[in-house]
Amino acid sequence: YKIAGELTPTVFHVAARAQGFGSPLTLSGTASWGKKIDMNLEFKATRLDLARLEALFPELRELKPRGEASVAVTLKGDPGAPQISGIVSAPQIILAGETLSKPVVKFALRGNTLAVNAASLTWKGGVFSASGSVGGLGGKGVTLDLKGKGEALALENLAGAFPALKGSGVKGTGTLSWK
What we know:
Number of strands: 12
Shape: elongated
Helix content: under 10%
Order of helices and strands: EEEEHEEEEEEEHE
């Protein structure tokens, strides 16, 4: 662990490095105060071992996440109601035994709503993208408002995921969209 800081009468500068979840971790930025506290911090993990997240988030155990992801999160504004945004990406991950290539999610968190500004990945040769929001986080009524599409979907590759298509001999490519 390595932490460096500088304190002036109105600003605290921080730069911290550590190792955790199989990845180098960094935190850098400032916190200033006067009439109000204002922060501008960035957290980064460059090789986050997804398998190690199961200990932190037990609900992930069924998905058995595998692979390494890069995470960059920015926290800005008032610490009591921060503006949180970031990006998570990986060359390839495995969830529930399925290989997902080039997953990328750009997000922002405001209160109890997660805005998915853009998400994309490749699965079984098809390219999927989505955007929208997930509301009510931390409460009892989670709401999804997502739209997306799948392109270049090789139908024979998808037959294993949809029992009705097994043995049908379906071939070709397709496009899918949802709201």
